[in-house]
Amino acid sequence: MGKNLRLKAARARIDMTQKELAEKIDVSRQTINAIEKGDYNPTIKLCIKICKALNVTLNDLFWEEEDDEKN
């Protein structure tokens, strides 16, 4: 799992900080940072919470196409 730039971009689109997202889904800011850096692989339950908070789909943030992995 590489960096999750899509999560960072989705957050930026709605002008939400890591801290704000973390508080909204009841995790630490460090958890959000680790997910964005690719250091932490969130559970499906956490992925769903993040998606709901950012109003995006799982596909938008977490399901990478094979083409993405080759880049």
UniProtKB/TrEMBL annotation:
GO terms for molecular function, please? DNA binding
Arranged from A to Z, the UniProt key words for this protein are: DNA-binding
Q: Which Pfam families match?
A: HTH_3
Annotated ranges, domain HTH cro/C1-type: 7-61
PROSITE patterns the record matches = HTH_CROC1
- The residues forming a coiled coil are none
Q: Which CDD domains match?
A: HTH_XRE
* The name this protein goes by in its record: Putative transcriptional regulator
**Organism of derivation:** Granulicatella balaenopterae
